[in-house]
Amino acid sequence: MAPSHLSVREMREDEKALVLEMLKAGVRDTENRVALHALTRPPTLLLLAAASSGLRFVLASFALALLLPVLLAVVALKLGLRARWGSLPPPGGLGGPWVAVRGSGDVCGVLALAPGSHTGAGARVTRLSVSRWHRRQGVGRRLLAFAESRARAWAGGAGEPRARLVVPVAVVAWGVAGMLEGCGYQAEGSWGCMGYALVREFSKDL
Questions:
Q1: Considering the entire predicted model, what is its pTM?
Q2: Any idea which fold 90-205 has?
């Protein structure tokens, strides 16, 4: 579907449950790949091996001592991702959340924005998810274009020195990263654990 067949508007109260499920589904599609990426980094493997060695003196089962640290690490990582990206954010200074809607009225994507942490940091995308049934149909690009227009308007009204949009992306979301680079965004930083990136941040001056 072409982006021209999509509209973006503020989420209605009766759409909260649908939008929340869409966000949770988006996290579920990513969390296993993020967990695999995180748990196969050398420092993580070293910590898991040390934890397993310690548990062997406490637990009677070697298999349990080996698997328990991995299971706990996976659960902790997934809960963290779901808390960060799988929930509806509170209303922010830029309004929203917004939803992408097809001509038929079907909600197919969700977007939320928030001001940056300091003056000049621009606006940040805090939620961006597209229903799995509507991916690769221009929904993500339409939401991104809407986010850029909102960021410009907010920057002008708030007296920001520049209009800028920052989009955090999980390192395993290669398709999203490619879309952003195709729209003129550049990777500017990352955050993660023990020196290994789990999330990359892309930005663009508007």
A1: 0.82
A2: Aminopeptidase (3.40.630)
